[in-house]
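Morning run. Coffee first, then this:
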Amino acid sequence: MDKTCPILELQDLKVYFGDSKGFFKKKDVVKAVDGISLKIYPGETFGLVGESGCGKSTTGRAIVKINTPTEGKILINGKDITKIKGADLKQFKCDVQMIFQDPYASLNPRMTVGEIIREPMDIHKIYDTVEEREARVRELLELVGLKPDHIRRYPHEFSGGQRQRIGIARTLALNPKFIVCDEPISALDVSIQAQVINLLEEIQDEMGISYLFIAHDLSMVKHISDRIGVMYLGNLVEVGDGDDVYENPMHPYTQALLSAIPIPDPKVAREKQRIVLQGELPSPINPPSGCVFRTRCPKATERCAQDKPELREINGRLVACHLYDKD
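And here it is:
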C-alpha cells in the first residue's frame, strides 16, 4: 500500500442540512457531518462504522457529490473536487463511484441488465461502438460471477445478491480508482454477504481499487478493512489499524461499540462484559458542548463539557478523547 500520497483526503468536512435563513423563521440545522478529516491511500480499504445517524452515509454521499459539503475540502489525488465543473467533473465521475445499499431500489426496473451496466459507458462515451460496450458488459458480468447471457434480463428476475452484483458491475463500468461502498451487504442474506465481500476483495486485488467501506456489521468491517474509523454524531472519535482497534479500543465509545459484537461461544459470551450506554443519542440539531459523547460516556469529566477533544495521535492511533491528555 502506497502511503506517500492519499487517493482521498477529507479536510475538516462539514455537511449541514436545513436553512438557517428561513423566510418566516429560523430553521433548525442538522449537523450530519461536523468537521471530519481522514486520508485513504491507493489500494486500501477504509472501514467506517458507528450507530445509525452518525453521519457515515452522508460522508460517503458527499465524497461522490450527491450531498454538497457545507465547509471543508474533499481532495482526490491532491485536487479539491468540491467545486469542480465541466470536464473535471466528468473525469471525477469516472474515477469515483458508489455501490448503494439497496440492490432493489438502485436498479432501474425498466432497463435490462445490459442497458444498466452499459449506461455509464454511453454517457461518458467509453469505447467507440455499441458492440465494444456490450462486449465489456459481458466481461463485467463474468467478473462479478454472473452469466453473460443475463444481459437481456431485467432486475426483477434476479435475487438480492445477484442484483447487488449487477450494481457492482455497473460501478466498475468506468474503471474507477475509488469506490464508496455504502452498506453494500446490509440488505442481503447472511449466506450471500460473505460472497459479496469476497467478490469486492478479488476486484480490489485485480484492479487496485480503494474502498471506503461503510457498514453496521462490525465483524465484517474487521474482515475487509485495512484501517477503521469510528464515527459518533458527525465526528470521528478513533482511527487506526483494523486489528489494533478491535483488539485494544481506546475511545470509550469504541469500547462500548465493540462490546456489543455477538460471540458464538456461549461460555465466552457469558464471561464477556457488555458496556451498556445510558441515555439517548443526542440530536445532531443540538449536539452537546465539548465532547459530543460526554452525555453517554461513563468516564466523562468536567473538562469534557467545556473543551472538544481533537483527533490526535496516541500510540500510533488517532483518538479524540481527553482521557489520553498528558496534562
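The mean pLDDT is 89. Good start to the day.
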